[in-house]
């Protein structure tokens, strides 16, 4: 179904310059993707921790001033009884949570879609307390000449989805939160349908069911309503925990093609296909019963968080579908297929 790029992983943490002195890049993964000026543009999630020192626990934090975020390092004495380590992901100190790594979003550019040059500085990064724990997992969609970027923001108020826009990938306008906590995995359609903007989203479910894919409409990309749950996890080993949408749906003669991720037994992530009706995109026309793509090779099964393939960036280039995906929450990889092949498999 998909052919992996022989150069995988195409972007590794070592390919990305740290954003501050004393920081180290531990992940460059889950990129949003689009085409601009004859180039493939990726918006990487770059996770950074701190270089450690003997007897210390050092974590990245942001200080905010005049609408900007300044990366800094907070230190704890490793023997302080008030310090509690929360596995590898965080530190709890005197009633407050801190993360062991914080993410920002970094641009990478390529003519051939395989060999990328990563920008030396962040493009989207924490600039206010609502982003204090990081900006993550961007999706990019082009609508009427403007590129809209939605991304997850994390803070002490949990996680939710924010929106930004750009016309040139140089200047950025942040438009604010569009789906309140706890909601992520937002995929905005590339055109209006019935004079409304359309999105898929994934509210958290701590109640009777499991986190599922929802539909929503908007008059302006900022205010969303008419929510409908359109796809729920099935009772299989692949989807036993939750599902969520990926990049912007692709318009085909058969409907809107979506590639979504599923978290199954043992927290293993795989990718599935789904087709939505062209005029009533809350209706599922087709849905694959087996994964289109799943972790198999070493760089997908081992790493920071092994057994994970996760896509939120797809482009159609030279008649082929280029799927950029995060591997083990650590690296960026590429797999190539075609829309026709995927549709035939559903």
Description:
With 346 residues, this protein is mainly beta. The chain has helices spanning 298-301, 339-345, and strands at residues 3-4, 23-36, 39-50, 56-65, 68-77, 83-86, 90-93, 96-99, 102-110, 117-118, 134-143, 146-155, 158-166, 173-179, 183-188, 197-203, 213-218, 225-231, 242-244, 250-252, 255-263, 269-276, 284-287, 309-317, 320-327, 331-337. The chain has one domain (3-345): Tachylectin-2, Chain A (5 Propeller). Strands 19, 20, 21, 22 and 23 form a 5-stranded antiparallel beta sheet that branches. It has a 4-stranded antiparallel beta sheet with strand order 1-26-25-24. Strand 9 (102-110) and strand 10 form a beta hairpin. The radius of gyration is 20 Å and the shape is globular.
Which parts are unreliable, with pLDDT below 50 for 5 consecutive residues or more? Answer: none
Which oligomerization state do the chains in this entry correspond to?
single chain
Categorize the overall geometry.
globular
CATH superfamily: Glycosyl hydrolase domain, family 43
DSSP helix count? 2
Query: Which CATH top level class fits?
Result: Mainly Beta
By DSSP, the count of extended strands is: 26
CATH fold-level name = Tachylectin-2, Chain A
Cα distance spanning the termini = 11 Å
The overall number of domains is 1
């Amino acid at each position: 179904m998909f052919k992996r790029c022989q150069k995988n992983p195409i972007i590794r943490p070592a390919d990305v310059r740290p954003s501050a002195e004393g920081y180290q890049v531990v992940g460059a993964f889950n990129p949003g993707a689009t085409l601009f000026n004859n180039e493939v543009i990726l918006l990487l999630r770059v996770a950074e921790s701190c270089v450690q020192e003997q007897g210390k626990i050092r974590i990245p934090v942001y200080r905010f001033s005049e609408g900007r975020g300044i990366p800094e390092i907070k230190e704890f004495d490793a023997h302080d009884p008030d310090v509690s380590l929360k596995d590898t992901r965080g530190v709890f100190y005197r009633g407050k949570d801190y993360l062991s790594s914080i993410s920002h979003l970094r641009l990478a550019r390529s003519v051939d879609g395989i060999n990328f040059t990563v920008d030396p500085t962040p493009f989207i990064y924490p600039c206010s307390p609502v982003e204090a724990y990081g900006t993550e997992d961007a999706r990019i969609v082009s609508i009427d000449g403007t590129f809209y970027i939605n991304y997850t923001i994390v803070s002490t108020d949990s996680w939710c989805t924010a929106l930004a826009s750009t016309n040139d990938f140089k200047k950025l306008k942040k438009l604010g939160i569009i789906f309140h906590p706890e909601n992520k995995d937002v995929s905005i359609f590339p055109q209006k349908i019935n004079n409304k903007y359309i999105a898929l989203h994934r509210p958290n479910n701590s109640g009777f069911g499991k986190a599922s894919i929802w539909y929503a409409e908007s008059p302006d990309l900022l205010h969303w309503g008419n929510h409908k749950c359109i796809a729920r996890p099935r009772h299989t080993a692949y989807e036993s925990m939750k599902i969520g949408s990926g990049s912007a749906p692709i318009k085909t003669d058969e409907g809107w093609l979506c590639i979504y991720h599923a978290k199954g037994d043992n927290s293993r992530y795989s990718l599935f296909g789904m087709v939505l009706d062209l005029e009533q995109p809350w209706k599922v026309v087709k849905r694959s019963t087996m994964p289109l793509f799943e972790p198999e090779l070493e760089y997908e099964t081992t790493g920071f968080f092994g057994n994970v393939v996760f896509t939120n960036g797809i482009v159609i280039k030279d008649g082929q579908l280029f799927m950029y995906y995060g591997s083990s929450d650590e690296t960026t990889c590429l797999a190539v297929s075609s829309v026709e092949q995927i549709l035939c498999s559903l």
